[in-house]
Write a structure and sequence with these properties.
Layout: H1 35-66, H2 73-80, H3 96-120, H4 123-155, H5 159-187, H6 190-195
């Protein structure tokens, strides 16, 4: 069993909270995938790129705070002003709009895409979907930790609070990039073949 699932994720230190990439099952390439079927995978990639652009915006705000150009409260304000904030969890924190949108994205996968893949896909696909579901738990734990770190930074804008928020953000960013890459590689053709669209 993966180390991240031996005890509740909230109990794990940030350093050991990871995706256990070595345990990722892989899906063999699909043959004879039509251009129309490939569109679903391309759509998924486009959605992911949108999230990564928003995360980059958050990274820039963190840099401005580090450099003294912005007050820590500006981080929450800037993130809440991003285009994506209307669609995610309702909390005003460092995640702002991107966190809400990322939750919405995962909810859509969990409620629509994953069940369709599990019902229509191969055993390899079902194993991959199970792993992706586990990875969603890690992403969401990191989002919760980022919320806490952002609120602590606003309450007491110290170097220590900034360092903590930055470490959590760095971990979240790396985890999301890895998760998206894995999902795109494994599901790019499977989505069009087994789901039809996303």
């Amino acid at each position: 069993m993966s180390k991240i699932h031996c005890r509740p994720l909230a109990d794990l230190a940030l350093e050991v909270l990871d995706l256990d990439e070595a345990a990722r099952p892989h899906v063999p390439p699909y043959a004879n995938v039509t251009e129309q079927q490939k569109q679903a995978g391309r759509h998924l990639v486009a959605i992911h790129r949108m999230h990564l652009r928003e995360i980059s915006k958050a990274r820039m705000v963190l840099r401005h705070i580090r450099d003294g150009a912005l007050d820590p409260a500006a981080l929450i304000s800037a993130l809440q002003g991003m285009d994506m904030s209307q669609n995610y969890r309702l909390f005003g924190n460092i995640c702002g709009q991107e966190c809400r949108m990322l939750q919405f994205h995962h909810d859509a996968e969990e409620q629509h895409m994953f069940p369709a893949l599990e019902a229509n896909g191969t055993e390899d696909i079902r194993c991959m979907v199970a792993k992706l579901r586990q990875e969603h738990l890690v992403v969401h734990e990191l989002l919760d930790r980022l919320e806490e770190a952002a609120q602590a930074l606003i309450s007491a804008p110290t170097a220590g609070a900034f360092s903590t928020a930055t470490k959590v953000f760095d971990k979240l960013e790396a985890v999301v990039q890895s998760h998206f890459g894995y999902e795109e590689t494994g599901l790019k053709d499977a989505l069009g073949v087994h789901v039809g669209f996303i």
